[in-house]
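User: Predict the structure for this protein chain, please.
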Amino acid sequence: MKRIRKGDTVVVTAGRDKDRTGTVVNVMADGRVLVEGINMVKKHQRPNPNRGVTGAIVQKEAPLPASRLALVNPATRKGDRIGFRTLADGRKVRFFKSNGELVDA
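Assistant: Here is the predicted structure, written as structure tokens:
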């Protein structure tokens, strides 16, 4: 079970986009995370006449390491650490370390 999942709202804790928030678009198998509107890079796109693609410089999101992200706690509106807990019915859920609230209801 991963600490950060697709659809979570996260805050960047280090790097040039520090303190910016965004929604997780994709979590890769190697531990990197793609966040909407964060870590934007410019890619030089080659033209491909067979596909009808024109050459241009496009902006896209680059993946970030998951260690640079923290899940946003809605109660405090700040980044928070995540722990795991097993409920009485056997489900494994995530919870915020600061106040103990469950992330997955």
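The domain at 9-76 is CATH 2.30.30.30 (SH3 type barrels.).
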